[in-house]
Structure prediction request, 204 residues.
Amino acid sequence: MGRVERRRSRNRARLLTAARELFAARGMQSTAIAEIAEHADIATGSFYSYFRTKDELLDALLEEEFASQLRLLELRQAQVNDPAEKVSVAHRHLVRVAQADPDWAWLLVRLDASQRIAWAVLGQAAQRDLQDGVESGRFHVANERLALSASGGSLFAVMHSQLIGEAGEHADCEHAEGVLRSFGIDRGQAAEIARRPLPEPVHR
Prediction:
């Protein structure tokens, strides 16, 4: 990139970072565009050179955040073959992100748009994992779409519990076990799968 392109890329990244911090702390409705620009050390008028509205910025932020996490959890999943363990790895990964990065988790639980964007970015991967399990005979669900919605809803609830200090030390494993049981895995096997060592995201 040339100098102008590099500057635009840096400014866009600064706006996204500022929005991430402010939206997580107070929510989108309570955050003005002028505050985002000030936090990013960018003139308010320049904001509109990158995003037409605050909603457009939010969509870009969430798509980037979810895409980043999707890449990491797929690197973890690539190291296991069992469809049940793939689902366990995905849910445990996202719960652990909520533990390690509360700002990211608050974005998800505070913003209505987050579930829409989450489904757009992560939903296809989650649907693929569920279908693989159904086709292999590992999972038994009455309605795949409802099963996905239920597991996604419980994931958001666990993240919120984590953020307010109500989830225990092993929330990732306990949540994954519950999801696997809801997909038809028996209790003992679900507990064992959910407590296997979580693969590290190895880049290739």
